[in-house]
Design goal:
Number of helices: 5
Strand content: 15-25%
Number of strands: 7
Shape: globular
Strand order of the largest sheet: 3-2-1-4-5-6-7
Length: 229
Amino acid sequence: MAPETTAGHAIVTGTSSGIGAAIATRLLREGWRVTGLSRSEPGLADPRYAHRAVDLLDAAALPAAVADLNPTAFVHAAGLMRGGMVGALDAETGRTLWRLHVEAASLLVDLLVPRMPDGGRIILIGSRTAAGAAGRSQYAASKAALVGLARSWAIELAPRGITANVVAPAATDTPMLRDPARRAVVPKLPPIGRYIHPEEVAALTAFLLGPEAGAITGQQMLICGGSSL
């Protein structure tokens, strides 16, 4: 059974800006009901959008944030970029990246999937950097872990028709790209001569959430602008 595209309910993390906001906007346009999980309101003026303020790094706060929700789909778009070269790695930075990208995704999926209807969808927003990049080892490791999660969930949930995939963009034109805290990690311009647009990530995500993507599961989809060539 495929999820509805006109009345489905998607929970999307990281909707305050960037890719998460673009995904929420796209899904609303396609008729979804969206619940956004992030620390701040994105300002989406749509009656089908509901915001729940939550710190995704606070594992203890997550069960209450989704306790009454029974979504058709879950999209983990919240992300943070921090970098460092070997010899100058910060352990706390590594823990933060892991907690946001991996632990939050794992906890939320564990809470939500038992209540998700057959034919549901899980999308994790990864990164082309998951394959490895100088100065980004801790970030790359946390994003690479998402592929392992998605592939494991995909085979576990296949009997229920629930798919799990990773959408992995290269450098994307979001506020995170211009975050002063990542000055040491200069983004690389893809060969197409521009950064990836958040709307492009949202478009692929929306397709993977739809009924025509029911046979696509356990995959990492790159939107790299030629960066991986």
